[in-house]
Amino acid sequence: xxxxxxxxxxxxxxxxxxxxxxxxxxxxxxxxxxxxxxxxxxxxxxxxxxxxxxxxxxxxxxxxxxxxxxxxxxxxxxxxxxxxxxxxxxxxxxxxxxxxxxxxxxxxxxxxxxxxxxxxxxxxxxxxxxxxxxxxxxxxxxxxxxxxxxxxxxxxxxxxxxxxxxxxxxxxxxxxxxxxxxxxxxxxxxxxxxxxxxxxxxxxxxxxxxxxxxxxxxxxxxxxxxxxxxxxxxxxxxxxxxxxxxxxxxxxxxxxxxxxxxxxxxxxxxxxxxxxxxxxxxxxxxxxxxxxxxxxxxxxxxxxxxxxxxxxxxxxxxxxxxxxxxxxxxxxxxxxxxxxxxxxxxxxxxxxxxxxxxxxxxxxxxxxxxxxxxxxxxxxxxxxxxxxxxxxxxxxxxxxxxxxxxxxxxxxxxxxxxxxxxxxx
Length: 425
Hints:
Blueprint: E1 2-3, E2 9-12, E3 18-22, E4 28-31, E5 37-43, E6 47-52, E7 57-66, E8 69-78, E9 81-92, E10 95-101, E11 104-106, H1 108-115, H2 132-136, H3 150-170, H4 189-211, E12 232-234, E13 239-243, E14 246-250, E15 255-258, E16 268-275, E17 286-290, H5 291-315, E18 331-333, H6 346-366, H7 385-392, E19 397-401, E20 404-408, E21 413-417, E22 420-424
Antiparallel strand pairs: 1-2, 2-3, 3-4, 4-5, 5-6, 6-7, 7-8, 8-9, 9-10, 11-18, 12-15, 13-14, 15-16, 16-17, 19-20, 20-21, 21-22
Helix pairs in contact: 1-4, 3-4, 3-5
């Protein structure tokens, strides 16, 4: 980590690649393993701005009180279009988790219809083949030729929604040539079956929540800490995981399976990589992923499932999809749905904040580093404990958390995972 004379910080990997830049005003610009930059700005009153480097894709987060309950609202901007989503907050050991809350539920008959196989296989045309995102991801994902039931139809919808959303969020990387996938790297039918099983599990959960409408709002820990919680995760944006003490980048479209349910509030969870688009987290490997990242994957899947079920209901009786019974049609609105409205001016606020952060980042990179006072030097991700001690000396305080260790210096807090620097603050 390098501090500049103006108060900025530059965090690099052990190879010198910029991983993170922090501005004096509090903005954090993260450089993902795929090269995509994300901006995060925390403002007073619980307002948080998260966006890609262009400011055309991201969200503004703020508290929302509805019917005596405090939630978190995010106004998403996707290609210039605003969309509001709601989450219930939960925190543990300083970590914030936001759990997606659906705008509505469906009638019991719809869940029964959507859970059971269809009387005969359905041939459905999606119309994706001419879209840029589909060409970009090459042969990694291939839709089913026919659908035995709604769970398989929803599986393809979820995968497509995840890849398309990630493609739009990248923007700056769109000019990169498509990747060619072989039969050994493409997503296999077995992996898609695992996703379909997760869809069925979450469909049952949605049916149970619909039956409990009118009862108290869900509280407590996110379902990822429950033995009945999600087991399969679809990576929705690039992030860092760890294989032992080695960094292991994950890319959008990678598929993970939980090895065991993490203990309540655990920072990390062990997962197995079921499918990989070719990142260094190879298929079949066991890695550690932050539970906050798993929760965001689950949020994306839940929101995509809600959109998929809406399209499924809209398309029933068409394109070969069996018709819904009349009593199974329609929705049941959540109590908070009328209070959920996109923030006015969110798009311009997002664009302005990102422009300011980008300008500050470039100024920090161009600025001279701060002169070290006494013992000191540059700390980078991947350095070992002895290397840090030789550079900075012994810490004022040491926090030992097993696999994770924290060194506290006068103006620094250094986190080690597996004996190597994983974070510097």
